[in-house]
Amino acid sequence: TTSSEARISTTHAIIERNDALFWKNKEKFTVAVLGAAGGIGQTLSLLLKQSPRIKALRLYDIAPITPGVAVDLSHINTESEVTGYAGPDQLRDALVGCDLVIIPAGIPRKPGMTRDDLFKINAGIVRDLTVGVAKYCPNAILNIISNPVNSTVPIAVEVLKKYNAFDPRKVLGVTKLDVVRAETFVYGLRKDELQRLRKSISDVTVPVIGGHAGETIIPLLSQMTPKLSKPFEGSELQNLTTRIQNAGTEVVDAKAGAGSATLSMALAAENMATSCLKGLAGESNVIECAYVSSNVIPELPFFASKVKLGVNGVEKVLGLGAMTLFEEQMVKNAIPELRASIEKGVAFAQSS
Ligand code: NAD
Ligand code: LMR
Description:
47% of the residues lie in helices and 17% in strands. The protein has eleven helices and eleven strands.
């Protein structure tokens, strides 16, 4: 075992070095994090500082600590340059030239709140930041994390339309955390069989579609890979689905008033950002789930589904694939809530 472990770790080191060397000679990108001083923002920025795909990392927040966070990160011995920007006067400098803008700005939930309860404050924040994107980097890809995602994405789209800067391929609501959670929980329940198949947790994939709140979070467990001998059904299926849908609340309750998921979200956002940069760099077969402009459900202008990422952002919105009756019913049940959240966002943006 010792020698095979050594061989594996040498192979990993070579792959990592090759990846870094590969990216040294490739196009590198400029990325901004708006809300960079927050719980998600700081951790996400730390993860992005380690990316060989990024040449410039711009940290923007209204919090005065932001330039300090940037100085702190700038001492890390990776190649990207980190700069900090605090307050609306500096938004322009943070955004000019950006290829990808990630928005985790806004307040998080406390126990007892729904994500929609955040609308009052976060809607205006996302609107104002998207105005900046429309003015200063209209070609950038946008990854929106701020809740309620089901409404903040339509808000951003309406703002971009007003400025004639809307490209449906470039605005993505980040729902990757739902996928990360689904894969983690599935692995926990099927560890023995997966280990027998010599599969690790990173081999598990579960698409999650719909939106990012309660029953609009729809894990397609029938489409998980690797295929297992015992599919999820009955009460096990119901409990697993509910756990994935309530996982955000699980964290909110456990943090007991001090915020919502930040660390797992930062990792999920970094995964999503990396996939967007891979797409921009022309890598093939980059697939993620995201909440995007879509016509997969004819009555909804936005829906989360699998998307293929490319040099212009979303190259293709993939179909939903074969679903079980249970999954089809979840999609039907989610439509009224999604429609209402979308209309609320659109009305807010149009009236402000
Ligand atoms: P936080 O309070 O720790 O950080 C938010 C940051 O946003 C703060 O630093 C704040 O100063 C900044 N901010 C506020 N207004 C701003 C503005 N106008 N411009 C720039 N920055 C501004 O909160 P957090 O835990 O990092 O969560 C941030 C958001 O992400 C919340 O809305 C939360 O609900 C959401 N979230 C989404 C997901 C998801 O899966 N999409 C997961 C977790 C959290
Ligand atoms: C999550 O899913 O963790 C986030 O949307 C934060 C929240 O409020 O649950």
